[in-house]
Design goal:
- This protein has 224 residues and is mostly helical.
- The chain contains nine helices and no strands.
- It folds into two domains: 150 residues, no CATH class; 41 residues.
Length: 224
């Protein structure tokens, strides 16, 4: 009976393990997946707007009159698509594995969560536009402008996060380079310790080691 239970255990665990692996895989590409969906929807909406571009002026004026009164020009779906495409290029949201935004934010849960929430906001409002594009293909009516405004706001916040992500990546790269020790660094480190020992023969070994580390680190920073 024990042998039978041992043999059946892996079989029972296999589907669960596969589900866990699948869940992990989905979680690790969540930014990529949502970004891809948003970009496809943007393209569809831009095509719809282009198809309605040559509407007669009277009908276009009627749609504009339905838009909220404001000194600002109406939001443009093509402009927002271009802004989103710029964000993708800037952050690498659709880059391959190990260079993707998902991979770079793997250990930064807070920024990853905020990025996903903003992308979901973009996706939700794009979906609303998509559902109503047959009736309002130019997206100039009040509802469409409201949804486009929400997308614009989310993109502004995504671009703000992109700068934070870029700075964080640069800081990590610099820290990695500072911690990277070459053979030349090790030789220099040994020379520094010998020099400190020569000048301060009574200094404790731990102090000489500390000074060697400090001077070597500063040298690497200067050479970066």
């Amino acid at each position: 009976m024990q042998d039978a239970s041992r043999e059946s255990a892996p079989a029972n665990r296999a589907p669960q393990t596969e589900r866990q692996d699948e869940k992990h895989q989905k979680a690790s590409t969540v930014i990529y997946d949502i970004t891809n969906v948003c970009l496809d929807t943007f393209e569809e909406l831009v095509l719809s707007a282009d198809a309605h571009y040559f509407w007669d002026q009277e009908q276009e004026h009627s749609l504009l009159s339905d838009a909220p009164s404001s000194e600002e020009p109406p939001h443009d779906i093509t402009g927002l698509r271009n802004s989103f495409a710029f964000w993708i290029d800037y952050t690498g949201a659709l880059a391959p594995d190990r260079a993707s935004l998902d991979d770079r934010l793997h250990s930064n849960d807070d920024i990853q969560e905020m990025t996903v929430e903003l992308l979901e906001m973009v996706e939700k409002n794009l979906s609303r536009l998509q559902q109503n594009m047959d009736e309002n293909g130019t997206f100039l009516n009040a509802d469409s402008q409201h949804w486009l405004s929400a997308i614009d706001s989310a993109l502004d916040r995504l671009n703000f996060l992109a700068n934070a992500i870029r700075q964080d990546s640069a800081t990590r790269y610099e820290q990695t380079m500072l911690n990277f020790v070459t053979d030349e660094d090790e030789v220099f480190h040994a020379i520094v310790i010998s020099y400190v020992k020569l000048k301060c023969p009574n200094a404790k070994p731990s102090l000489r080691e500390h000074m060697g580390d400090s001077i070597s680190s500063r040298r690497r920073a200067i050479l970066l």
